[in-house]
Design goal:
The chain is α+β, with helices and mostly antiparallel strands. About 25% of the residues lie in helices and about 25% in strands. It has helices spanning about 15-25, 35-40, 100-115, 125-130; strands at about 5, 55-60, 65-75, 80-90, 120. A five-stranded mixed beta sheet has the order 1-2-3-4-5. Strand 4 (about 80-90), helix 3 (about 100-115) and strand 5 form a beta-alpha-beta unit. The longest helix is centred in the C-terminal third of the chain and has 15 residues, at about 100-115. The relative contact order is 0.18. The model has no long low-confidence stretch (mean pLDDT about 85).
Length: about 150
Amino acid sequence: MKFSVETINRNDYAAIRGIIADSYKNDAPNTDGDEVDMVDRLRSYTKYQSNFEIVAKGSDHRIVGHALMIPVQVSSSRHSFDVASIVEISVGSHYQNQGIGQAMVSELENRAQLAGYPAVSAIDNSDFFYKNNYVAADNFDIFFQRYQLI
């Protein structure tokens, strides 16, 4: 399938809600049922950057995938630094396993690098990210702590 990866446009929001809902249907792993609303809330987060939210569109310009990354701070007792974190990635169920997710991750990684972030993390701990050469954060003594963003 031919597709392009583009920065989000406000006109894409309704279609994105459908893609996210479709991607997480059937109680998929790593879902808490709040993904659609979480993306809406993250758009009002103070560190949100629209260039870190992307869509994949098929040759008919229909949205087939969505991904969102936000800057977060990683801290230890001695150090603190900002990284970019992929907090949501969805591909419509009819378009999965066609390289769309990998293309969106690659695009977000490139955008994070261009913005000067030293690393990219992913909140999701599914096999998808391990297959894309991500390493578990606990290997570096970094542990996830849930925060209320808004």
